[in-house]
């Protein structure tokens, strides 16, 4: 493990490193790719944090940048690329994320742990709202995937597939639980 990766790379840092591993980009390009691929479905990162992270990673020696003059009227852009240490940090962080994914916790489980004191009809209504939200989310993600057409990059395709599979599975679980609550009534 390198000195750069002795600390755990955050998910947002890994997302930036991974995009720059594909090709050098400026900050706004990174934002466009994040939006296009629906990356905010699985990594928490605001638009303003992109530039903060770029500067942080550059200070850590993982990125370098060059100023590129605009071909039009726009301002010059700072184009970021990985250094050798950045490429190594990206590879190590990506493999670590695959081998040891961090657990994420949701207040959904916390809410479920409290159903013993709640009215089953109200719980069912709340679950039906959640089911509608999941279904809408699945449709939105499927539409993003469909918009790519046949040229969807492999990495994006597997992420869309994972998200759609997880949502479909959770929808099935929610529907079964709603049926159990109806029987309980």
Features:
single chain, 185 residues, mainly alpha, Arc Repressor Mutant, subunit A, two-stranded antiparallel sheet, 7 helices, disordered N terminus
Structure description:
The structure is a single chain. With about 180 residues, this protein is mainly alpha-helical. It folds into two domains: about 5-100, Orthogonal Bundle (Arc Repressor Mutant, subunit A); about 105-185. About 65% of the residues lie in helices and about 5% in strands. The chain contains seven helices and two strands; from the N terminus they run H-H-H-E-E-H-H-H-H. Strands 1-2 form a two-stranded antiparallel ribbon. A hairpin with an 8-residue loop joins strand 1 (about 65-70) and strand 2. Helix 1 packs across helix 4 (about 85-100) and helix 6 (about 120-150) runs antiparallel to helix 7. It is elongated. The N and C termini lie far apart (about 55 Å).
The CATH homologous superfamily of the largest domain corresponds to: Winged helix-like DNA-binding domain superfamily/Winged helix DNA-binding domain
Total beta strand runs:
2
Tell me the count of domains: 2
| CA-atom Rg in angstroms | 21 Å
CATH class of the largest domain: Mainly Alpha
What is the chain-wise order of helices and strands?
HHHEEHHHH
| Average of per-residue pLDDT values | 89
Q: Using the 3D structure, state the CATH architecture of the largest domain.
A: Orthogonal Bundle
User: Which class best fits the helix and strand makeup?
Assistant: mainly alpha
Give the CA-CA distance, first to last residue: 56 Å
- Counting H and I runs of at least 4 residues, what is the number of helices? 7
What's the helical proportion of residues?
Answer: 55-70%
Sketch the major β-sheet. Answer: 2 strands, antiparallel
Q: Provide the spatial order of strands within the biggest beta sheet.
A: 1-2
Name the shape in a single word: elongated
